[in-house]
Structures are given as structure tokens and as C-alpha cells.
Design a protein that fits this description.
alpha+beta; 2 domains; four-stranded antiparallel beta sheet
Length: 202
């Protein structure tokens, strides 16, 4: 059983979180949390589900073992850029977790690139000239996400749906989350990680 006591270590949790089948479980021993991706079910309860990730994200994040290291590498930059654009750092981290697993070289089959998986048109719209540059990619993605939150009246679910499927898709489906399988999985996947991080799990 792989487990850790005390604070949640980014390397362990993120390494587990981006493998295809490693949900994370927790129990307390004398008031100390114990985490495992291979529980014996003796008092363990589900802590973080990873099977909710859209399949495209799982495929992009196949190099799971480096996710924790990358998170630590970009954490300061993510926090700074989030605050510059009036976003909760936890939200930006959650989007990156699902989009790329902190892989700055991630490229989707549709041509989205980088930590925030920017498409060419979105990058151009928000001033990103080099989608492969982590700082530019994060800045462009943060600007886009902030704009979407404003457009959809602060409705975070709709903003995230628009980030994944496009603004017009959300409007076309009557200001609801579009009935696309990836988008239906994407929104709760990001929200789950957002609330998880807000609860101090970094």
C-alpha cells in the first residue's frame, strides 16, 4: 500500500491523480490523515476521484510521474498570474490539472497547446504570441477564463463549459452546459479539483 502521513505531498497526489485508475483514499490515524491509492478499505474513504477526467486529458497526461514536480515548478507563476487577473489561484491550478497535468509541451489532437491548452485563435485573441512559452500560455489562459467568468455573470460552471467547448456552444444550448461527453466530464472534473484545493490540499 502506498501511503503518506501528514500534509498532502504534491508529488504523490498529482502523480496518482493523473494515472488512469488511481483514485485516492484517506483515513485518519490518531488524528493524522493517511492517503493511499491502493487502500485495504479498512477505514479508507474516497478522497479524490481521478476517473472523472475527460479521456483527452488522461491521454495528454500520460507522463504522470512528473506532474508533482511540474506543479511545484509552476506554482508560483500560476499564483501570480491568477491574482493579476482576479482569479482564485486554486481555480487556475484546477484548470491546469485537467487540461495538461502541468505539461507545458502538451498538445491535443485538435491543436490546443501548453499548460492551459490554448487554441491558435484564442491565443491570438488574448495576446499570446508563443503558446509554448509557459508564462505567455498561462497569461492567455487566465485572461480568457477571467473574460468567460465575466461574460457568464460569474457562473463558474458555464465559464468552464465555455473554456472547454466554446462560448457559442454554451449560448447555442440555451446558456447550459452543452451535452458533449467531454464537456459534461470536464466541468465537474475542474470543479472537484478547485474545491479540493480550496480546502487546503496543495
Amino acid at each position: 500500500m502506498r501511503r503518506t502521513n501528514g500534509l498532502v505531498l504534491a508529488a504523490l497526489l498529482l502523480g496518482m491523480a493523473f494515472s488512469a485508475s488511481a483514485d485516492i483514499y484517506m483515513r485518519e490515524e490518531a488524528g493524522v490523515p493517511v492517503f493511499s491509492d491502493m487502500p485495504d478499505h479498512n477505514g479508507f474513504n474516497l478522497f479524490l476521484r481521478t476517473s472523472d477526467l475527460p479521456k483527452t486529458s488522461l491521454a495528454r497526461s500520460s507522463t504522470a510521474t512528473r506532474s508533482g514536480e511540474r506543479m511545484r515548478l509552476y506554482s508560483g507563476l500560476v499564483d501570480t498570474i491568477a491574482r493579476q487577473h482576479d482569479l482564485e489561484p486554486a481555480l487556475l491550478h484546477a484548470v491546469i490539472m485537467v487540461e495538461s497535468g502541468y505539461n507545458p509541451d502538451a498538445t491535443s489532437p485538435k491543436g490546443a497547446v501548453g499548460l492551459m491548452q490554448l487554441m491558435p485563435a484564442t491565443a491570438q485573441r488574448f495576446g499570446t504570441t508563443n503558446r509554448h512559452d509557459p508564462e505567455q500560455n498561462l497569461t492567455g489562459g487566465a485572461r480568457y477564463l477571467s473574460a468567460l467568468i465575466g461574460q457568464f455573470g460569474g457562473d463558474l460552471s458555464l465559464a468552464l463549459a465555455a473554456y472547454n467547448a466554446g462560448e457559442n456552444s454554451v449560448r447555442r444550448w440555451g446558456m447550459r452546459i452543452p451535452p458533449y461527453t467531454e464537456t459534461q466530464r470536464y466541468v465537474p472534473a475542474v470543479l472537484n479539483r478547485y474545491h479540493w484545493l480550496l480546502n487546503g490540499n496543495t
